Amino acid sequence: MRTTHLSHRPSGVSATRAGRSLRGLVLACAAASAVLTGCSMEEASCGGGEYPVMTIGDTGSACVPNGDEPPKGYTRYPEGKVPEHVGDEWDTYWQTHTVDERGKVVEVPAGG
User: Fold this and answer.
1) Contact, 57 vs 51, CB < 8 A?
2) Which of 10-19, 59-68, 84-93 shows the lowest per-residue confidence on average (mean pLDDT)?
3) Tens of pLDDT along 45-59?
C-alpha cells in the first residue's frame, strides 16, 4: 500500500502561487522604487524641460520647451493656475475654461 504525504499539492497550485508571489514582489519593488527616487505615480502635464501652454479660445493644450515662446494660437496659463499633473485641480478647471484673445479667463460654452 502506498502512502502519500498530506502536504503534497499538485504542481499547478504551486505554479499559481509562485506566479502571484512574483507579481506581488514586482509591484512592491516598483512602489518602493517610486517612493525612494521621489517619483510621483501621477502623470505630469509635460515632461522635464517643458512647460504647458493652452490654446487661445479653446480647451486644448500642448507642451513647449523651456526658453521657447508659445506657438501662434497658444498662450501661457495664468500665473498660479498652471496644471502640473493630469487630473489635478487646474487640469480639471481648464477643461471648461479658457483664455480669450484679450487674455481674459472665460467659460467655454457647453459642447464647444
Assistant:
1) no
2) 10-19
3) 999 999 999 999 999
Are 68 and 51 in contact, with CB atoms under 8 Å apart?
Answer: no
Which are the contacts of 88, defined by CB distance < 8 A and separation ≥ 6? 42
Q: Is 60 helix (H, G, I), strand (E, B) or coil?
A: coil
Mapping DSSP to helix (H, G, I), strand (E, B) and coil, where does residue 17 land?
A: helix
Cα 26 to Cα 86: distance, rounded to the nearest angstrom? 25
User: Is 99:78 a contact under the CB 8 Å cutoff?
Assistant: yes
Return the DSSP state at 22. H
% of residues, the chain, pLDDT over 70: 62
Q: What is the pLDDT of residue 109?
A: 83
What span, in angstroms and rounded, lies between the C-alpha atoms of 7 and 64? 62
